[in-house]
């Protein structure tokens, strides 16, 4: 178990930001932490990174209490912040080579550190810009460098905060490929926060939804979508009139529809709810008080 959190609580003055957060993450798993602004995502991440002390609860990251993590423990972590504008005068290759040297003493026969600099540059797609100063990179290129800085030490656990902000569609697709490669080939556990729910659906093995200081949903995108009523939408045209019907059993509904109308049905399509639909429904249920404590626990 790479991350183990039980009954995590955080209070600022008289305000409870985290009210008993529970979740785990295993080796090689990509987990997305979602939630509305103010839900406690940043606080949770900072506690896991060892930058903030919790008020109460059990937290273990790579088997260690983050509040007591030493340099050897910290060398196993990688962090990609939402924005990073330092090192503008460093050239890309020189910067990564310099930062990588800090990780060399913490390598092991099982996991050598750091990444080979040229291999890392190729991995993040900056070969053509290796000799360019960081301050002269475009926004997307700068973001790739941010990722390279975060993984230069071959972390076992990588924190990604809004990783593709500012990426064009091509760069975003390349980054998604990189995340899958890191988790599959390097065995990295990746915990990401993002407001791009389509991205979370593509990347994450498991989704955590944090609201009101608690985890209100935990499961794969498919598992979560099946917990929301009306998850599928059937659309069809009959005699020139467009119809839309929401149903829990799209297959059964389509069978009945075609049995009742053997002709005249055209443009038939089935749309399952997206992660965005599911997320918004879950948060709305919680905020409106429709989600009971037992239901939260079941999710």
UniProtKB/TrEMBL annotation:
Keyword Transport: yes
Pfam families linked: ABC_tran (PF00005)
CC terms in the record's Gene Ontology section: plasma membrane
SMART domains xrefs: AAA
Domain ABC transporter, first and last residues per copy: 3-237
Membrane-topology descriptor: Peripheral membrane protein
An example molecular function term from Gene Ontology annotations: ATP hydrolysis activity
Family annotation (PROSITE patterns): ABC_TRANSPORTER_1, ABC_TRANSPORTER_2
Location(s), subcellular: Cell membrane
Keyword Transferase attached: no
InterPro entries: AAA+_ATPase, ABC_transporter-like_ATP-bd, ABC_transporter-like_CS, ABC_transporter_ATP-binding, P-loop_NTPase
Keywords from the named record: Antibiotic resistance, ATP-binding, Nucleotide-binding, Transport
GO process annotations (BP): response to antibiotic
Origin superkingdom: Bacteria
Name of this protein: ABC-2 type transport system ATP-binding protein
Organism of origin: Saccharothrix variisporea
Origin organism lineage: Bacteria, Bacillati, Actinomycetota, Actinomycetes, Pseudonocardiales
């Amino acid at each position: 178990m790479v991350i183990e959190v039980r009954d995590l609580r955080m209070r600022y003055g008289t305000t409870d930001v985290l009210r008993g957060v529970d979740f785990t993450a295993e080796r090689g798993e990509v987990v997305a932490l979602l939630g509305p602004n103010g839900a406690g995502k940043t606080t949770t991440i900072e506690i896991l990174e060892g930058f903030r002390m919790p008020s109460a609860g059990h937290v273990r990251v790579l088997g260690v209490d983050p509040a007591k993590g030493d340099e050897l423990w910290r060398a196993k972590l990688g962090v990609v912040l939402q924005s990073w504008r330092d090192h503008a005068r460093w050239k890309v290759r020189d910067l990564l080579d310099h930062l990588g040297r800090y990780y060399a003493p913490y390598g092991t026969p099982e996991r050598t550190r750091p990444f080979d600099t040229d291999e890392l540059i190729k991995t993040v797609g900056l070969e053509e810009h290796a000799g360019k100063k960081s301050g002269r990179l475009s926004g997307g290129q700068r973001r790739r460098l941010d990722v390279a800085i975060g993984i230069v030490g071959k972390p076992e656990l990588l924190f990604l905060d809004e990783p593709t902000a500012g990426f064009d569609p091509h760069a975003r697709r390349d980054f998604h490929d990189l995340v899958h490669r890191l988790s599959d080939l390097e065995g990295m556990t990746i915990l990401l926060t993002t407001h791009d729910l389509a991205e979370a659906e593509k990347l994450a093995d498991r989704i955590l939804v944090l609201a009101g200081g608690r985890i209100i949903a935990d499961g794969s995108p498919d598992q979560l979508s099946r917990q929301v009523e009306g998850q599928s939408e059937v659309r069809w045209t009959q005699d020139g009139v467009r119809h839309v019907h929401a149903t829990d059993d799209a297959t059964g509904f389509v069978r009945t529809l075609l049995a009742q109308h053997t002709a005249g049905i055209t443009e038939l399509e089935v749309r399952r709810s997206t992660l965005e639909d599911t997320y918004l429904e879950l948060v709305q249920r919680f905020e409106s008080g429709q989600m009971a404590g037992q239901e939260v626990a079941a999710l």
